[in-house]
Amino acid sequence: MIETERLILRLPEPRDRDALVGMFTDQDVMAELFPGLDEAGADAVLAKHDKYRGEGLGFLTVERREDGVVVGFCGLKRGEPHSPIKDEVEAGWIIDKPWWRHGYAREAMAAILDGVWDRIDAGRIYAITSQVNVKSQGLMERLGMQRLPERTFQSASFPEGHRLRTTVMFVIERPAT
What we know:
- By secondary structure, the chain is an alpha+beta fold.
- 27% of the residues lie in helices and 27% in strands.
- The strands form two sheets. It has a five-stranded antiparallel sheet, with helices on both faces. Strands 6, 7, 8 and 9 form a four-stranded antiparallel sheet that branches.
- A hairpin with a 3-residue loop joins strand 1 and strand 2.
- The longest helix is centred in the first third of the chain and has 13 residues, at 39-51.
């Protein structure tokens, strides 16, 4: 569990399912990430993150301290097998629409990145998103990540010509000790 001024980041619990599945199936929330997930697909995403737990990875439920409302899902995972960052550590986040523009994604991810280097044996952490997702790219920059323009790629998750296929990559290096 990680606590910040406004948030609690914790392992997902059964009581979180409806809120998390609601985010994954909301077309506005997923429009620039991975639209079209249904309830079964959302459950599969949650199950996949449970498999990362043994490595100290897997996304966490983001809950507001003041009232326990689930506002998002964020953390670290392994890059997808079809991705150029296969098996590397990847950062990611999803914040539910009512909570956009409140700074929750930045607060949560900054806390995760702040404490991660003592727990994982990785030289860097990547983040990827569609080229059209400029909001996530801005957050990556505010988190201290650097864009790698030479590593832009065509995501196999989307068909040729899909507006989300062109994917940009950012990285943050392990701080020098």
